[in-house]
Amino acid sequence: MNFLRSLYTLIFCAWITFAFAEQMPVGYYDAIEGKKDEALKIALFQIIKGGERLDYGPNTYHASSNPPQWQVGDIKAYGTWHGFQLADQLSNGCVWDMYSSTKRYFPIKGGSAAGMNIEHCLPKSWWGGTENAAYRDLYHLNPSDQAANNNKSNCPPGNPSTASFDNGVFKTGKDNQWNKNAFTIIDEYKGDFARAYFYIATAYHDMKWDATYSQFVTNDSYLTFTPYLVSVLLQWHRIDPVSEKEINRLDAISSLQHNRNPYIEYPELVEYIWGNKQGEKVDLDQLVRTTSKEYDIPTDTINPMAYPATDITDSTFSAHWKDQGRKSYLLEVFTLQETGHNDTLISMPGFNSSIVAESGNKIQW
What we know:
By secondary structure, this protein is an alpha+beta fold. The protein has nine helices and 13 strands. Mean pLDDT is 82; it is low at 1-20, 61-76 and 339-346.
């Protein structure tokens, strides 16, 4: 085995920044100035309801250029997995999966990654599963580990007191408040999910919800969500501020769909509609805009910045990284299984996860 080629020392991946990222148009949110409550939500609906939506599935556009480049007018040739490749790919080519810690790669020739599904963050069954624009909206679609996706089913967000499924990132189990199964995820992604739910409730403000799921969604209130679901989503929104991941994903999806998620751009708007600023009028100049240079992006203390391993032999290597403030890190090792299609990462045989404290440590297995 050629370790120089295939060794991945807990690839602490960095985000890919796309040159074509679409920025917020000037005056995009002007219509919400002075609005509050339902009028505010309707104004946002009018702003973000339009744009394009990709075809649902693995379809890929093959341009004459090499490599293929997106051009205006080509949008309908793309499928969801092409959108994921732009919005959910880390710098080493692996898929950013918010449902598990399994490392997988995007196939070189396009299409879906092995062992993964397209997951609707907000269950499509809640509106009856019609293949409408919401069905194809990337702001609440994510590449998902198949096992986690199967266990999520149409469960609501919640606070499970038991675990029927738990992979360390994603968990389902009975929520006593719902009196049925609910799902939760690690804190790092809770805000991502909450802001996706608030976006769907706004971008599809006029959508009719299936009465079967009236415990979660309602056609009788502009808030869309029932009180307990609102409380869970607000909790998730507040404990996980907008991250660099969300900002970059916002720009990538905006470049494809040509609409924005206002709750990533102006997270305080959540409070004006569902939270502690209900009844207050919006003053745009006073809102924190996460896509401005002044926004203080939360420091990621979970993942350090990795550098290539050195001193690689058949049984050892030296790991190197830039410390992000933690005293130690859990190191995992993977190899890239190359098939030409659906390439994926598999655990290194014979290697047990190792706690490492200093960059430059010699690792042996």
